[in-house]
């Protein structure tokens, strides 16, 4: 309880009142006039407008959820794979770890703003255009190898999303690294004496021991992916560009409920499969 206390105090002091205010706004029509702001209760009108009238909300919501369902497995698998490699002993290991954590440091402020400039966009478009033929050839190669079309499209999509995957994997890599380094070396030595291969040691020792951290990283990645996307942009523009705070609050609450449902489902699924060492 004492570990949660700082968060609880911060939530009550800084977030609880705005949370109730946004719920009130979502059920009201807000008008600004010479006398100030008038708030008139309208019930669920804003929710109906968001779900049935607004042409962008449902599309942005589905797009955001789809991106999370696609990106989260890729980010977690990539992070675990890199953590296992970076845990090995090789020259320049510290530099390699720093390189993969750099996107976390640079994904803010001026560097983040540069991504929207014409120069960065031109570089991205050029790289995408140059890799189109290679991606097509890889798809044909995997299809000829007998993989299903769904798996091929998912893997080719992962190639197209490689920048996003790498830029969002820094924290997860550190968490996995910390977890792997806490595994007793005696376990690996005993498995090696028993004739286990590196592949078997990974699936029988490393993977079960870091399964709680896989759970943590999945939850963290879901929340992080939902924090900035087309849905949050739409909510912000509706409130602070169009000044429709009631509709914006309703969108935010629908979005919040959708995130909560996804987190609950994921938690129920993973909590039954996590291995905790006694």
From TrEMBL:
Protein name per its UniProtKB record: ABC-type sugar transport system permease subunit
Domain ABC transmembrane type-1 stretches: 61-274
Species whose genome carries this gene: Paenibacillus pabuli
Main location: membrane
Localization in the cell: Cell membrane
Bilayer-spanning residue ranges: 6-23, 68-87, 99-120, 162-180, 201-223, 250-270
Membrane topology reported for the UniProt record: Multi-pass membrane protein
Family per similarity comment: Belongs to the binding-protein-dependent transport system permease family.
Domain of life: Bacteria
The entry's keywords: Cell membrane, Membrane, Sugar transport, Transmembrane, Transmembrane helix, Transport
